[in-house]
């Protein structure tokens, strides 16, 4: 039997959600009207979206319903599971009960499912493009800190190899991974070797030594300098050249490809230099502007990347979920075009 995360897994602001702090006002007024009019029909709410996607956010949406409905024990919920592939218009969840009991939660649970499905879907696309190579989830700095736990969980559902913050891994027990930031190199007066040595001296030996080598825009020379200094202790180098720069090693080869940023020629140059100097054990991690499309191009050209670290592109686009009442007191009742669509894949939520 498939397992779900328990409602207690999520740090929900229960009282604030119950009071409608995060709800669209018309949902709150709906509950107010129904209660004042003593009108309590039993409705069936149906949730769907409009594209092929990887579903995520079900477990947290269920937690919202179970912890923040006024009488959650009176709701009947059927739902798909996090990680299920879904089709356009497919019903992913139904909620049955007195609308006044849960009307105030619609904004919250739809937002949860929409965001997490977007991230899980984007991650799966990148993971598929990477052709079995590890992909790291590195976009947390581009959004509010409060979403890191759920974002990291959605990335996990999408197939990510690792995440960058403790919060990212909190719901699935993953450690935070990372390399060396430009800030540490700058603090050592721009000396990448000195910064990497400091990392090696003070950081737990179980952590891989991955040197960031683009600080001087000369990745080949810097990679070789760090490799000669650390030897077998160096696990990999990371290339993160800005998209408005051309690395020193690439300039003589310009002409028939886009030379800026972490281009395929730069990766090839670094790999060939490391191999030539006897550092074949040192892997190459790339970051900065990577998308599923760019990774697909790299893999088609057989570019010698070992790890892809992907950032803001994993937050691109939106997958918007909608909730509609489709049954009232056991009889069909819905907006035109939104009739009840039973889904045999839905499982009863206990």
From TrEMBL:
Claim: Glycosyltransferase is one of the keywords in the record: yes
Keyword line: Glycosyltransferase, Ligase, Phosphoprotein, Pyridine nucleotide biosynthesis, Transferase
Cross-referenced Pfam families: QRPTase_N (PF02749)
Pathway: Cofactor biosynthesis; NAD(+) biosynthesis; nicotinate D-ribonucleotide from nicotinate: step 1/1
Protein name according to UniProt: nicotinate phosphoribosyltransferase
Catalytic activity: 5-phospho-alpha-D-ribose 1-diphosphate + nicotinate + ATP + H2O = nicotinate beta-D-ribonucleotide + ADP + phosphate + diphosphate; nicotinate beta-D-ribonucleotide + CO2 + diphosphate = quinolinate + 5-phospho-alpha-D-ribose 1-diphosphate + 2 H(+)
Keyword Phosphoprotein included in the entry's annotation: yes
Enzyme Commission (EC) number: 6.3.4.21
Ranges of residues in domain Quinolinate phosphoribosyl transferase N-terminal: 24-115
InterPro entries (alphabetical): Aldolase_TIM (IPR013785), NAPRTase-like (IPR053190), Nic_PRibTrfase-Fam (IPR007229), Nicotinate_pribotase-like_C (IPR036068), Quinolinate_PRibosylTase_N_sf (IPR037128), Quinolinate_PRibosylTrfase_N (IPR022412)
Organism domain of life: Bacteria
Molecular-function annotations in GO: nicotinate phosphoribosyltransferase activity; nicotinate-nucleotide diphosphorylase (carboxylating) activity
GO BP: any one term: NAD+ biosynthetic process
SUPFAM superfamilies: Nicotinate/Quinolinate PRTase C-terminal domain-like, Nicotinate/Quinolinate PRTase N-terminal domain-like
Lineage, top ranks: Bacteria, Bacillati, Bacillota, Negativicutes, Selenomonadales
């Amino acid at each position: 039997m498939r397992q779900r995360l328990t409602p207690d897994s999520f740090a929900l602001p229960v009282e604030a959600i119950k009071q409608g702090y995060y709800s669209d006002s018309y949902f709150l007024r709906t509950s107010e009207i129904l209660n004042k009019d003593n009108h309590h029909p039993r409705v069936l709410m149906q949730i769907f979206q409009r594209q092929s996607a990887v579903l995520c956010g079900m477990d947290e949406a269920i937690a919202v319903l179970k912890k923040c409905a006024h009488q959650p024990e009176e709701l009947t919920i059927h739902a798909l599971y996090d990680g299920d592939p879904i089709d356009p218009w497919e019903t992913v969840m139904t909620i049955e009960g007195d609308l006044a009991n849960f009307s105030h939660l619609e904004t919250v649970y739809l937002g949860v499912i929409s965001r997490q499905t977007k991230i899980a879907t984007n991650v799966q696309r990148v993971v598929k493009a990477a052709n079995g190579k590890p992909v790291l989830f590195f976009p947390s700095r581009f959004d509010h800190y409060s979403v890191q736990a759920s974002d990291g969980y959605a990335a996990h559902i999408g197939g990510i190899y690792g995440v960058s913050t403790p919060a990212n891994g909190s719901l699935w027990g993953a450690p935070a991974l990372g390399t060396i930031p430009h800030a540490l190199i700058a603090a050592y007066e721009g000396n990448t070797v000195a910064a990497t040595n400091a990392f090696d001296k003070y950081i737990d030996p179980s952590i891989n030594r991955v040197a960031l080598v683009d600080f001087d825009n000369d990745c080949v020379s810097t990679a070789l300098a760090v490799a000669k200094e650390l030897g077998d202790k160096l696990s990999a180098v990371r290339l993160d050249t800005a998209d408005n720069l051309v690395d020193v090693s690439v300039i003589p080869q310009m002409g028939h490809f886009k030379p800026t940023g972490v281009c395929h020629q730069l990766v090839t140059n670094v790999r060939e230099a490391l191999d030539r100097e006897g550092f074949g054990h040192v892997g190459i991690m790339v970051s900065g502007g990577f998308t599923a499309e760019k990774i697909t191009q790299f893999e088609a050209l057989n570019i010698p990347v070992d790890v892809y670290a992907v950032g803001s592109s994993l937050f691109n686009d939106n997958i918007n979920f909608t909730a509609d009442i489709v049954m009232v007191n056991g009889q069909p009742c819905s907006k035109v075009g939104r009739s009840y669509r039973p889904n045999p894949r839905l499982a009863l939520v206990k």
